[in-house]
């Protein structure tokens, strides 16, 4: 049963005549409408609006329109014309009074670290400078602001803060994606790869991918025999075994993870046992947690039911007669397993592996708790940017890349195995 | 998270339907598979159950005739100290019911509430770095310093609060400290006394616990490397200084167990998983005094930071929230917390009011981070610097950690 053979047995479904079917179809559509609306409102809408944030970032452009207009024709060399100084000072002072400057400063700080205090601290002094100039009857024109701003902070006399303003002021930007792929702005204004010590997201994507793949394969190796045993047990025993698979599944994720810590830690039960039976010395306790081993053990345990359940339901539907026939025709048990049984379970294997892999890619609490320094995965950074730094643009770009990667895998899977062969037990 | 696999495990149709795989139109299969992926991504995005629980509003709409407000705090022994220390007194005095909810820090929920226009958190207990970001974003109310009450002897609030404890949106309530502690039962031999000892694997072998964040770790590393405390942030601002801090951390990296939650350090120490660990002084205190653990805190190189209260912008209960802020800003309220957990009041006048631990009768002052005995070599965390650099540090630290 490979995908090459399936066209032979899959007939084209006969399409009922359109006129006759319209009424029932409309009624059927009406029935699913609430679900479609629900998914659109609670899932698709928010997801799309968040993904939009990854390339659409109008905050600074809206907050500083005159500055952006004055910087539009500036080529990024030296300092911009006097009008830019005047416009920036005017808008900083006004935004400070309306209490919207913090948000702007925060956005610009993401482009160039340190800009937050340059803007916030500088604007405080700009308000004072303007008041002093007005009291003295002096003009507050571009030349005045150029001199004042450079006096307040010498950085304004160089191109960097202006480039940061210009970059942050782009409404549509690829900046978040470039950052998510470890590129940074070079001195000539173009993008280049970040220095090695600063590359963070691409290595984390790789690690996330490899950990998820490893966990999925481990789950398959452990789950396949288990699912087979449950599927071929008498109903009473099968129920008990199924319950054993489901029981940890109903336990809180944190409880399960913490139990692994108790079991595997240096002074934990497993190590105590190994020392007690003399297999390892008291100094030679094995480090099984706070490293990659811990991540694999705990994640495999947490995700195992997601693989066993689809696999089990597919296996239950395979009549034992096929295996008997194979053996009676002279196949060794291994041959029968490989050439008769395994191909029939492929739909379940595909469904289970895909589900496990996708869930594994998004996990971060379990690896963070038991993984030590290897426990940092890409989702940790997404969570950081969503919750702490509030840089939702970058979080959205990272999430979009993750989603893109999963979609790509889905396409590859479709190409290699055929997505229509995925099975949930039907 | 149980719905999906249960659906997947739905009992198979009659045995004959097994062949249905080939009969059903490929399009439907495709759609089913796509749904599977979408659901998987959706589930994966749910994150930890802890966060889900933290996001829930406290149950039940309050009786309209009764005044109440929702205060969100860090849970555990700290939240308990706040309830006993002054929430109860607040309710007794004003008749305003306090609904306490837990969270784990982070601004996402506040931002979501403010942007959706349905604010159901009123007052939030925050780190100063987050309250500054939240203030910049406009999701917290500005606090007029004139609402802060004078001290018990009429000390004006402006002079009575410790320096840099109040910000535009946050009212300082306490000073806490990141210190390191060791367990003398597992760390035999000489006792460590300085921050440099934490990085000295030769004299003090054994694993170390550290927070998996750049905060405090970078400062510890520079202090241990001999940078004078007044030059720490200046040094960290240069690429060479940052490299220097990471090089110092490199020397112990292989021996570090990284912790995530404040409850972990005492656990790691008690389990013998590490011989010393950085941690928040209140958590270690809790283990020392309430759980009789033999831990010893090393105050040298302690990094002081402030805890604040802030009001979520646009809360419908602004009047109640401000009343709560005024009450919490009293010296007596801060001292009330200090009678349960060793976090120093953010007011000088509050520090003299603490006395003894309310349950065990231990003298509290020796455990306080602001006790001059413990402040011989301390560093005050610079929130302005962290507001400027935290994203950059977070990324650099994560890159370092992944290497």
Task: Provide the fold topology.
The complex is a heterodimer of chains A (426) and B (403).
Chain A: H1 6-9, H2 18-52, H3 59-63, H4 65-71, H5 82-98, H6 101-111, H7 115-136, H8 142-152, H9 160-168, H10 175-180, E1 183-185, E2 191-193, H11 201-231, H12 235-250, H13 253-264, H14 269-276, H15 292-316, H16 321-328, H17 333-362, H18 365-370, H19 378-387, H20 392-416
Helix pairs in contact in A: 4-5, 5-7, 5-8, 6-7, 6-9, 11-15, 11-17, 12-15, 13-15, 15-17, 16-17, 17-20, 19-20
Chain B: H1 3-8, H2 20-23, H3 26-44, H4 49-55, E1 68-73, H5 76-94, E2 97-102, H6 108-116, E3 123-127, H7 128-137, H8 157-160, E4 171-182, H9 195-198, E5 208-211, H10 217-224, H11 232-236, H12 239-250, E6 256-259, H13 264-271, E7 276-280, H14 281-290, E8 296-311, H15 318-328, H16 331-338, E9 344-345, H17 348-351, E10 378-380, H18 383-402
Parallel strand pairs in B: 1-2, 1-3, 5-6, 5-7, 8-10
Antiparallel strand pairs in B: 3-8, 4-7, 4-8, 4-9
Helix pairs in contact in B: 5-16, 7-18, 10-12
- Low-confidence parts of chain A: 1-11
Radius of gyration of chain B: 25 Å
Global outline of chain A = elongated
Write the element-wise H/E pattern of chain B from the N-terminal end onward: HHHHEHEHEHHEHEHHHEHEHEHHEHEH
Major sheet details of chain A: 2 strands, antiparallel
Instruction: Write down the Rg of chain A.
Output: 31 Å
Average pLDDT over all residues of chain B = 85
Oligomeric composition of the shown chains: heterodimer
Distance between the termini of chain B: 34 Å
Order of helices and strands of chain A: HHHHHHHHHHEEHHHHHHHHHH
Shape of chain B: globular
What is the number of E strands of chain B? 10
What is the typical, i.e. mean, pLDDT of chain A? 87
- Determine the fraction of residues in helical runs of chain A and give it as a percent range: 55-70%
Between the first and last Cα atoms of chain A, what is the distance in angstroms?
A: 17 Å
- How much of the sequence of chain A is in beta strands? under 5%
The count of strands of chain A amounts to: 2
Low-confidence segments of chain B, given as residue ranges, are 1-25, 37-62
Briefly note the structural class of the backbone of chain A: mainly alpha
**Percent strand of chain B:** 15-25%
Structural class, from helix and strand content of chain B? alpha/beta
């Amino acid at each position: 049963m490979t995908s090459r053979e399936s066209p032979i047995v899959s007939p084209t479904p006969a399409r009922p005549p359109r006129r006759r079917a319209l009424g029932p179809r409309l009624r059927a559509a009406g029935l699913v409408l609430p679900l479609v609306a629900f998914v659109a409102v609670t899932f698709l809408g928010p997801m799309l609006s968040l993904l939009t944030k990854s390339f659409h970032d109008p905050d600074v452009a809206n907050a500083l329109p005159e500055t952006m207009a004055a910087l539009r024709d500036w080529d990024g060399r030296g300092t911009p014309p006097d009008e830019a100084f005047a416009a920036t000072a005017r808008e900083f002072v006004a935004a400070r009074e309306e209490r919207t400057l913090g948000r702007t400063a925060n956005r610009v700080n993401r482009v160039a670290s340190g800009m937050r205090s340059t803007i916030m601290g500088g604007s405080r002094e700009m308000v004072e400078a303007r008041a002093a100039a007005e009291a003295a009857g002096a003009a507050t024109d571009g030349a005045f602001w150029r001199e004042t701003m450079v006096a307040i902070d010498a950085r304004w006399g160089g191109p960097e803060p202006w480039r940061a303003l210009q970059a942050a002021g782009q409404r549509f930007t690829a900046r978040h994606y470039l950052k998510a792929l470890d590129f940074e702005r070079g001195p000539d204004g173009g993008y280049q790869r970040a220095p090695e010590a600063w590359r963070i997201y691409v290595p984390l994507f790789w690690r996330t991918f490899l950990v998820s793949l490893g966990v999925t394969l481990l789950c398959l190796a452990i789950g396949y025999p288990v699912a087979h045993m449950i599927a071929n047990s008498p109903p009473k025993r099968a129920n008990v075994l199924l319950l054993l698979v489901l029981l940890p599944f109903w336990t809180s994720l944190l409880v399960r993870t913490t139990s692994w810590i108790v079991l595997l830690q240096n002074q934990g039960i497993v190590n105590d046992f190994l020392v007690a039976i003399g297999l390892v010395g008291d100094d030679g306790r094995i480090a099984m947690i706070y490293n990659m081993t811990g991540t694999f053990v705990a994640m495999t345990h947490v995700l195992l039911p997601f693989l066993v359940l689809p696999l089990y339901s597919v296996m239950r539907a395979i009549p034992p007669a096929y295996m008997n026939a194979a053996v009676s025709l002279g196949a060794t048990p291994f041959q029968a397993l490989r050439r008769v049984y395994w191909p029939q379970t492929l739909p379940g294997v595909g469904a289970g592996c895909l589900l496990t892999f996708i869930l594994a890619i998004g996990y971060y609490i379990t690896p963070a708790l038991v993984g030590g320094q290897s426990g940092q995965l890409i989702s940790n950074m997404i969570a950081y940017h969503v919750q702490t730094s509030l840089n939702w643009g970058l979080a959205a770009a990272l999430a979009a890349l993750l989603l893109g990667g999963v979609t790509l895998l889905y396409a590859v899977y479709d190409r290699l195995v055929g997505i229509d062969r995925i099975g949930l037990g039907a | 998270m149980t719905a999906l696999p249960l659906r997947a495990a739905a009992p198979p149709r009659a045995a004959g339907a097994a062949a249905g795989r080939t009969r059903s139109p490929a399009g439907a299969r495709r759609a089913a598979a796509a749904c599977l992926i979408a659901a998987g991504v959706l589930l994966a995005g749910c994150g930890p159950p802890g966060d889900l629980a933290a996001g829930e509003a406290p149950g039940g709409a309050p009786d309209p005739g009764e005044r109440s407000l929702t205060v969100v705090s860090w849970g555990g022994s700290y939240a308990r100290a706040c309830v006993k220390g002054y929430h109860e007194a607040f309710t007794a005095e004003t008749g305003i019911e306090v609904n306490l909810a837990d969270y784990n820090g982070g601004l996402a929920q506040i931002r979501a509430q403010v942007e959706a226009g349905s604010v159901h958190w009123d007052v939030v207990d925050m780190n100063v770095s987050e309250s500054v970001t939240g203030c910049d974003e406009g999701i917290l109310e500005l606090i007029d310093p004139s609402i802060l009450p004078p001290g018990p002897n009429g000390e004006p609030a402006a002079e009575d609060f410790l320096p840099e404890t109040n910000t535009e949106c946050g009212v300082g309530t306490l000073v806490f400290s990141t210190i390191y502690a060791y367990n003398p039962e597992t760390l035999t031999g000489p006792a460590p006394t300085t921050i440099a000892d934490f990085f000295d694997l030769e004299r003090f072998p054994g694993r170390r616990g550290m927070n998996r964040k750049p905060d405090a770790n970078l400062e510890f590393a520079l202090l241990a490397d001999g940078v004078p405390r007044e030059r720490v942030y200046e040094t960290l601002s240069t690429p060479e200084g940052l490299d220097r801090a990471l090089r110092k951390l490199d020397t112990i990296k292989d021996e570090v167990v990284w912790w995530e939650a404040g409850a972990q350090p005492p656990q790691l120490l008690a389990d013998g998983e590490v011989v010393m660990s950085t941690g928040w002084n209140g958590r270690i205190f809790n283990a020392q005094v309430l759980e009789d653990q033999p831990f010893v805190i090393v105050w040298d190189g302690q990094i002081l930071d402030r805890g604040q209260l802030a009001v979520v912008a646009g809360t419908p209960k602004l009047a109640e929230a401000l009343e709560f802020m005024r009450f919490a800003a009293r010296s007596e309220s801060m001292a009330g917390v200090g009678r349960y957990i060793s976090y120093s009041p953010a007011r000088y006048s509050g520090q003299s009011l603490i006395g003894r631990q309310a349950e065990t009768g231990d003298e509290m002052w020796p455990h306080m981070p602001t006790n001059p005995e413990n402040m011989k070599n301390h560093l005050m965390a610079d929130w302005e610097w962290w507001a400027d650099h935290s994203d950059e540090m977070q990324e650099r630290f994560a890159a370092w950690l992944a290497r």
